[in-house]
Amino acid sequence: MLEIDAISKTFTVDRKAVPVLDRVSLSVAENEFLSIVGTSGCGKSTLLNILAGLEDASDGTVRIDGRPIRGPGRDRGVVFQGYSLFEWMTVEGNIRFALEKSDLPAAEKSERVAHFIAAVGLRGFERAYPAQLSGGMRQRVAIARALVYRPRILLMDEPFGALDAQTRGMMQELLLQVWEDHKVTVIFITHDVDEALFLSDRVVVLAARPGRIRREIDVPLPRPRAFDIVTEAPFMALKREILTEIRAETLRAMGQEAGA
Ligand SMILES: Nc1ncnc2c1ncn2[C@@H]1O[C@H](COP(=O)(O)OP(=O)(O)OP(=O)(O)O)[C@@H](O)[C@H]1O
């Protein structure tokens, strides 16, 4: 459904070309949950921004159902690590804002907003302001806001990176529930291999600078997944495999830096 075809990206820094992504190609199936991991600076966020249409690729094409994307679109919802909520709007106001340009009837907008507030477990907090919410609750608002116009693809860049371990675990379970209930395709960027494995159908390891696909690893662990899956042997074997790939890339990147 989502086709990433030979995407390259080069930034210009001090008039020097800095290649960040090098011919990244990936096919993502409808309803797939795909995570992207890789050493720091390998271009994960840049790739996500290109998929979101917030950044242009230097080369290559992103297609959804065969049509190349041009800029941001309602077929994609985005959740970043930072809680990019409007502080002066209530929970309800923040989520409703995403529907501002939609021509849905007002009653249907209200219904959708209420539905997604319930889906992320925020019933009772409709009139709260972001400053009155915990980090986990703020990210739940961000998820509801990204889903309320029913995008087919949810793009998430380290959405739980700033949360404590306990809250993070709860948010992962909540996200899987929302994903299962709403049949959305998810591309999820994370540093955390446990998180990637727990959530995903497939994990893509990017090579260090410039980012290329180093490995694609299927995660054939049964669903629904419970939190204690992380201590089971098949999970640990996959984790070892991914950590080995990332470590090799990190060492390679450090070698490049030392040699530069
Ligand atoms: N607008 C920009 N101009 C110049 N260089 C940039 C720009 N955005 C990103 N870069 C560089 O591109 C590289 C990849 O950055 P990116 O944020 O995509 O990596 P990442 O894998 O998400 O990193 P991390 O895991 O540390 O968040 C970095 O070296 C970064 O400095």
TrEMBL record:
Superkingdom classification of source: Bacteria
Tell me the protein's name.
NitT/TauT family transport system ATP-binding protein/sulfonate transport system ATP-binding protein
Keyword Signal attached? no
* Gene3D superfamilies referenced in this protein's UniProt entry, alphabetically: P-loop containing nucleotide triphosphate hydrolases
Q: Where is the ABC transporter domain?
A: 2-233
Q: Which GO terms describe its molecular function?
A: ATP binding; ATP hydrolysis activity
Q: What Pfam families does the record tag this protein with?
A: ABC_tran (PF00005)
Annotated keywords: ATP-binding, Nucleotide-binding, Transport
Record-stated family: Belongs to the ABC transporter superfamily.
What is the species listed in this Swiss-Prot or TrEMBL entry? Phaeovulum vinaykumarii
SUPFAM superfamilies from the entry?
P-loop containing nucleoside triphosphate hydrolases (SSF52540)
